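Cross-posting from the modeling subforum.

Setting up a comparison between two proteins and wanted a second pair of eyes on the formatting. Protein 1 (sequence, then structure tokens):
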Amino acid sequence: MVSTGRVGGEGHPLLGWGVPVAEAGGRLYTGRVARQDGPVLPVAAFVEMAFAAGGGRPIRELSVDALLYIPDDGTAELQTWVGEHRLTIHARYRDTEPWTRLATA
């Protein structure tokens, strides 16, 4: 899998650029992933994203709610939000679709 987004400050290609979130606090990272090596984003990628977005802090628990299947003819949009004690990873395929929560930590 290769990100089609820009590399963010943490250097993880699936996070994209991080911006502070007004009122909710924390930071939001956005990126895209395209299908190149397989149809599913490996769960290990969620762990890497959580570790990088959390600034290298230990991850006590990561719950995977859904796998990310990448379409043959498209990309998936990713959002990773990290707060003081919580992190979520969401994805969607099109702007008109709702976000699906993939993992929480």
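Protein 2 (same layout):
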Amino acid sequence: MTTTELIRAADRHFWRDAAVDSRQSFLATGNFDLAANAFGLLMVHNDDIVAPGEGFDMHHHQDAEIITWVLDGALEHRDSGSAESTIVETGMAQHISAGAGVRHSEVNAAGYTSRQKVRVVQSWLPADVLGTTPSHDHHDYNDTLASGDFVQVAGPSSPLPLGVEGAALWVARLHDDLPRELSGGAFVHFFVATGEAHVDGEHLHAGDTLRLTDAGPLKVTGSGEVLAWVMDRAV
């Protein structure tokens, strides 16, 4: 039997400093047991808005699969394995497999005087195999998202395969209120980034999250951008 939990935008965890507004599906700022608070395999799901020229300086990750989806603006990424930076823009996903350990920075690619913020959704999942060689890649999905259907942007059938089995991130830019089908799974984390959506009898607005367990295929309608993690197991 499918069970659901609806988390409204106002009830998500909120963390803020001078440069970043972070709305979190799970407490991720500070010392927390991420695995204990996970939903399925999803340990972190942060909706971050970063001020121009600001971001996160060099910091360390290990044995985590990290997917960053850029909703608006451009993110500049630099890691310890390369002297060059990477720019990830709206409609692009970046995958980092932290493996044995990587240091990297993530900052708003727009300069301080631009007034252009960057908005990203970042997710963390645990790696199946520990201590692998770190790697990162990115891909542009703007063309495939134009159809309004769900597109697998990270997972086994995407250009960005993950180092964790049984998980996939799907994104859709819904329009025309046409029904779109999302595959079900043991755990589905459905997030409305912009606009609104109807799914499983619930009406969701921007910032709302719906968590479903043991879900069959879902019919989704609405207008806006939505992200859904579909997972077949838990941490």
